[in-house]
Model the fold of this input.
Amino acid sequence: MNVFEQFGLGVKSYIKALSLVINNGLWIYFIYPVVIYILLFYLGFQFIHYLSDSLESSILAYIDSGSAASWFSFLKGFLHFFLSIGLKIIFFFIYSTISKYLVLIFMSPIMAILSEKTETILTGRKYPFNTLHFTKDVLRGVALAFRNMVFQLTLVLLTSCIVWVPIIGWLCPLFLLLLSYYFYGFSMIDYVNERKKLNIPNSIQYMRNNKGLAIGNGFVFSLLFNIPIIGVIIASVLSPVAGCVAVVEMEHH
Done:
């Protein structure tokens, strides 16, 4: 399959994933992302508020010379207004990028279970529960999500330096978007690769050879995730199921 066919399979697999979730009682797993989302939403906004207010106070304190001039009071008031809104927007943008990976990290145990159950439904292969093996699955999912998050954020910072360069800089947002889709899909499909006994370097090579599949899965994951409130809940359950569906179908192509 070429990269475009893989992309189409990665997208279409969500239709079958929805059917599998509904018809096989996997809908019960929607409870977990609800709890995680509420906690992340509350803690995230508390952190954004605290960090932006602390940084704003530090900046204003640094430039405050103690002048009583009216123009300085006006300037300080303007800076207070600008920083109060601007810093929160900046930190919210950063958090919105990180939050997807935080969901992947905290949902890793559930995603591992969903991916395994999906493979059993599709192929009949059963994997007896083993605490040590399950723990390794979860830790691998967490490590991979953290690796991808750091890598993506590093690239965001690096490309922000050339975003104003004509043509090359204009293509940076598209590149970063495709890269984020790839990393999200990578995380979903790696649960299957782990059961196939692929170590992380081999899993990375597998995904490079099937990048269209990862991008297609991550594309829908990102679209669903951006739907207010219910999006993150739906994406957290459907994406690992869709990732497993796509890999199994590609193997039988």
Remarks:
- Residues 3-251 form one domain.
